[in-house]
Amino acid sequence: MITLLGWLFSALLILIVLPVWVLFVQVLLASLPVRSLAPAQGSRPRVAVLVPAHNESSLIVATLNSILPQLLAGDRLVVVADNCTDDTAALARAAGAEVVERSNAQQRGKGYALDFGVRYLASDAPDVMIVVDADSRVGEGSIERLALCCIDSGRPAQALYLMHAPAGSGLKVQIAEFAWCVKNQVRAQGWARLGLPCSLMGSGMAFVWRDLALIELASGHIVEDLKMGLDFCRSGKPPLFCPDALVSSDFPRSDEGLSIQRTRWEHGHLGVILSDAPRLLLEAIRKGNLSLLAMTADLLVPPLALLTLLLVVAFSLSWLVVLLGGALAPALIASFGLALLGVTVLLAWSRFGRGIIAFSALLYAPFYALKKIPLYIGFVLKRQVDWVRSKRDDT
């Protein structure tokens, strides 16, 4: 019986360490010398930029001003003012965008806003539709690069989407910026080195217009971008990472805004892991779909803080078992996993994080992980399933 428990414990630890292996491979590949990529060829397709917005009056004008200079004759810029109670719509019109207003208190969430915008665009459909969040800034030339990448590949394309800590932010926001960089830049770049797809990230997403019929947009899913990417992959259109196109945003300044945003992202991600990952893994293996297998493996990597907590708990329990006379194998597996995670984070920091966070501040990361324990307890006891907007400083 004791031997059986030891084997089961070892098997559980191997399952915990597998996502660390995926993360390590992604970071290692991303850290290799950069290869120059041939620029996208061909004439720029006709583009519609769709901006879903819910009470974004403080940021919408800056977002539109970063997009408008990049549009050509025949392009469209459409703002979906979704259940707004402020002057987002009026400001967007004054800035030069087409504006459609949607009001439906029962169907809330970005997915519904996107579906509403797509139906509005259908009467004069573009070649490529690009989604930009209302709090994002689009880098110069990024609309063209993203549109060409999408139309040339015939697949959804995802820009490099980074979030930055506002000036004067504390350590936890700096660590969050580094973790975001690892998730959206490093891991996507690593998979792209092998020709594998990336997850859709919410802002800076480009779609061939005719491909939008392949998926269902209208939903209140709290991580609709993640679900959309998986749905496209299952339909034979795995998303392509386009790092030459840049979209950026800032974390909320308020603690409340940060908490709401973090809860939505992480509860949504964990919910998809539990509900969809086993089915996706079996489907990928059964159909021999390497792209779906790669996206599922990426999905199975939990947030860095949770992965750290799981390994620390596994390490402590396994060595306690050794001290009580139990098997050594689980302790060695847990120790290896924790060491591999440490090496992976240091490699990511040395290659991509030096300009984001000092090494001394990085040492605070384990304490940051501990502070997120209530968030993960909340996932078990009261999981967030409804979309909630992240609170800004002034709204």
From TrEMBL:
Keywords: Glycosyltransferase, Membrane, Transferase, Transmembrane, Transmembrane helix. The chain crosses the membrane at residues 6-29, 299-321, 327-349, 361-381. It holds the Pfam family Glyco_tranf_2_3. CDD domains: EpsO_like. This is Glycosyltransferase family 2 protein. Belongs to the glycosyltransferase 2 family. InterPro entries: Nucleotide-diphossugar_trans. The keyword Transmembrane helix applies. The keyword Glycosyltransferase applies. It comes from the Bacteria. SUPFAM superfamilies: Nucleotide-diphospho-sugar transferases (SSF53448).
